[in-house]
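INFO  loader      accepted 1 record
INFO  loader      residues=312
INFO  predictor   begin
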Amino acid sequence: MAARGRAGPSRFTLLVLALASLTLVTLDMRDFGPVETLKDGAADLLSPLRGAGDAVFGPVGDAWTGAFGNDDLEAENAELRARIEELEGEIIANEDKARLYDELSAALDVDFLADQESVVAKVVAGGVGNFDNDLVEIDKGSVDGVREGQPVVTAGGLAGQVVEVRRSRSFVRLISDPTFAVGIRLVVNDEIALLTGGGEDELLRVDGGIDIDTILKVGMSVVTSGIERSPFPAGIPVGRVASFDVDEGALEQRLLVEPSADLVRLEYVTVVLYDPDDDGGAAEPADSTGSPDAGTDPTAGEDPADPDGAGG
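INFO  predictor   done
INFO  writer      dumping tokens
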């Protein structure tokens, strides 16, 4: 009975505290003045403690955020840089593909060939042999109708001449080679002369054959002459006159000619299947059964640096 009697005051105390709390909440909601004063005092009392806590724990939080937040930022930046590099690579690759497409389209549509039969070839090697930059290899051969002596052109004009043919590939001597020679004609006055290569990075040369009284101008067009039995059909662009002077001893004029074909960046070329002995003007494709190139590829064991097979 005594224990139950002691519980009475406890319940009473709990009831009083509950009523007091309810009263304070009600007064606080109604902005009762004394309660507001009490709240402000408590806030002022606790404010230094809160400031001290911020001073102690604030740098810790900032350091935590800096350590892990910066790592995330650096990782994101690295990912963005990698993506930028990837996009730059794609842009360059697409530009290169577009350039190759333009060159191939130009090789397929060479206006000055008219009805001449031709075949487009890819340059697969440049500077073939003992550092011979004037000899290139193409991926077309006798099975494609290619023959020695045939002209090789780009959309700009004459680029060279086939000097050796294998079954599935050939070698082309560029017009810049000093041993290269072709009959040319000056378009304005029909003067005919012999043009030779000037060497790598040099202009083409006409060392004679132009009368001393012939009127010349820089920029005059030069084309192949196409004289009888020439391996080059008439009218293929060769270049433009870059300069000229007079050989007083021979009473002739000499020319330097800028080639119209871009010999530096050869990707695709067009082989003109021309045969001066053929009335039709085009060589017939090789018969794979009757051609000496039929069967195994004769390139095995041969040195491409010696395309004429002359040896050392």
